[in-house]
Write a structure and sequence with these properties.
- The chain is of the alpha+beta class.
- It folds into 3 domains: about 180 residues, no CATH class; about 50 residues, SH3 type barrels, CATH 2.30.30; about 90 residues, Alpha-Beta Plaits (2-Layer Sandwich), CATH 3.30.70.
Amino acid sequence: MKETLNQIFYGNTVLHYLVVFGSMLLLWIVWRLIKKWLIRFVVSLTAKTQSNIDNLLVDAARNFILPYVYLFFQYRIFQQLNLSPEIEKILSVAAMLVTTYFVVRLIIYSTQHLITETMKARNEPEQRIKQVVGMLLVFKVLVWGGGLVMLVDNLGYNVTTIIAGLGVGGIAIALAAQNILTDLFSYIVIFFDKPFEIGDFITANNFSGTVEKIGIKTSHVRSPDGQQLVMPNTEMVKSVIQNFKRLEKRRVVFMVGVVYETPAEKLRSIPSIAEQIILAVDHAEFARAHFKSFGDFSLNFEIVYFVDSPDYTLYMDTHQQICLLLFEKFQQAGIDFAYPTQVVLLNNGEKEAAPAENKAVWTKTSAVQ
């Protein structure tokens, strides 16, 4: 038995092989127990806390740190054997590949989840979280690129030439794809500056609609008539954007014109009539009402009020109700609305009034014979 254990195969005794592979088996059993009992126990503890940071740490340890530690110790145990230089080199390269993989994955995982958890803690909408996940694609490419360069450097290759070549190639690619890069930077500006979000009704470049999607290159806007407008992010960032969804309340200014024949007493009563009507309407806040100007065919009153909601339908319903009540009150008070009229003075001094056809102003002319 002793002779059998002392027999040498490929530079190692049978006993040495048994010790190494027994150690690897024992490490595997310990790993399974840790994974089954310890991690499960820690997960049950972190589930009782309100913070998600501890859950993130546990997930990172379970998915990246502990597997890497397990493979590292297995590698160190296997190295106790007397191995040929070729096998040593293969194992060394494999170890560097595994290390690069786990380090890059850990950096990407931690960064992505820290950002998303921070956004959730700030009650950011789900659409913005999806946007930042898509934007992290560039970050992932950079991290993987850096990991590959470090791997090549650790393998003993001169990366200076590679980096220089990548620099020249990067400049060429940047020049060829400058429009795409410009849109990408515009997307980053939109994300951080937040001039609009998905669901907002906006006006940009003389186009209006509801934002449906904010992509890396373009944003999709649904116009009121149902058309989908695909707008480049660069053009949207350059333009003046009106975001109607962020209105806290709407300021409404409209004119009311009455005929010149209206008595002065009734003219003085018009501001108070408008105030009483607006104060009686829900969601309306009276601001002012004034006799503003003498028009070509009307005495003009400017009325200003606020609607305490950004909802456009509510604004239209409120304004319609106010206009109808004004019409009813003016009828009851005997106040006539003005309309484009032409007055002709006859040679006997009498007036003859008739609606002006296709005229927007009231004119006075004299008939001379």
